[in-house]
Amino acid sequence: MKLSLGFSPCPNDTFIFDALIHHKIDTEGLDFEVFFDDVETLNQKALRRELDITKLSFHAFAHVHKQYALLDAGSALGFGVGPLLICKNERLIHNPKELTADLKVGIPGKYTTANFLLGIAFPQLVDKQEMIFSEIESALLNDKIDVGLIIHENRFTYSEKGLYKIVDLGSYWEQLTGCAIPLGGIVINRNLDREVQEKVNRLIRKSVEFAFANPKSGIDFIKQHAQEMSEEVMYKHIELYVNKYSIDLGSDGRKAIDVLFKLAIEKRLIQPIEHDLYLIPHKVS
């Protein structure tokens, strides 16, 4: 059986899925047609129900939770991993009050969790320009935008380019909630047979565990898709985004996701949730 699978070319995703798609683990009769896309393209594909299994932002998941269920394996949550709001003009880092409504903000996508957090922290920043996440630094340097919201590996490279951090929205979230920040998860189409859904969840977990046990196994595959990234930066990226929550969300991971959606509903950023989010129901103690 062949299933369509979408994830990003970023090192954390290629690290997670290498063993699965290259049959380094027993895939139990499943095969995968892989689509590599940036996170917002994956979000849009999920909104159009194009893929059987896909990585997506948790913010986007709120809009498709009736069609897709969240797997326990493969998610990106953590502490100190949030998006950064950066600028070229140093004065903005010393006086956040100058973050006014007239500033043009480059964001990595409307449905990204990063944009959700920006809306909570700086609701006055409404002039937003969507762009590929890897283009935001250049847009700042070329004065096409005034501030930029960066994610993924760009958090390691912006300062080398003479750009400045205004605020770490991950730290903002952690202080607000005490939870890990939920960035992205792996979802599966609810129309697939339940047995297939549970098998995919099990296989992704095995793929993550294989990657942790054999961290250099997928190095060529990871390098192939990493964008102008040194091996050191690649593994910093992986260490930041792949952790215990990627193996299994657990109660803490689920709590973080539930809090994210609760806040979003309270602020009327999303509609109330009408379906259990998770493939595997909450365990009752």
Index terms:
alpha/beta; D-Maltodextrin-Binding Protein, domain 2; single chain; globular; 6-stranded mixed sheet; 5-stranded mixed sheet
Q: What does this molecule look like?
A:
With 285 residues, the protein is an alpha/beta fold. The protein has 2 domains: 2-77 and 180-266, D-Maltodextrin-Binding Protein, domain 2; 84-177, D-Maltodextrin-Binding Protein, domain 2, CATH 3.40.190.10. The chain has helices at residues 11-21, 39-47, 58-64, 91-94, 113-121, 136-141, 169-177, 194-213, 219-225, 231-241, 244-247, 250-266, and strands at residues 2-7, 31-36, 53-57, 68-70, 76-78, 84-87, 105-107, 128-130, 147-150, 164-168, 181-189. The strands form 2 sheets. Strands 1, 2, 3, 4, 5 and 11 form a 6-stranded mixed beta sheet that branches. The longest helix has 20 residues, at 194-213. The mean pLDDT is 91.
What is the succession of H and E elements? EHEHEHEEEHEHEHEEHEHHHHH
- Please give the CATH class of the largest domain: Alpha Beta
Number of strands: 11
Principal-axes shape call: globular
- How would you classify the helix and strand content by structural class? alpha/beta
Distance between the termini: 36 Å
Helical element count? 12
Low-confidence residue ranges: none
Largest sheet: 6 strands, mixed
Range of helix content: 40-55%
Radius of gyration: 18 Å
Q: What percent strand?
A: 15-25%
Number of domains: 2
User: Could you please say which CATH topology of the largest domain applies here?
Assistant: D-Maltodextrin-Binding Protein, domain 2
> What is the name of the CATH superfamily of the largest domain?
Periplasmic binding protein-like II
CATH architecture of the largest domain: 3-Layer(aba) Sandwich
- Mean pLDDT score: 91
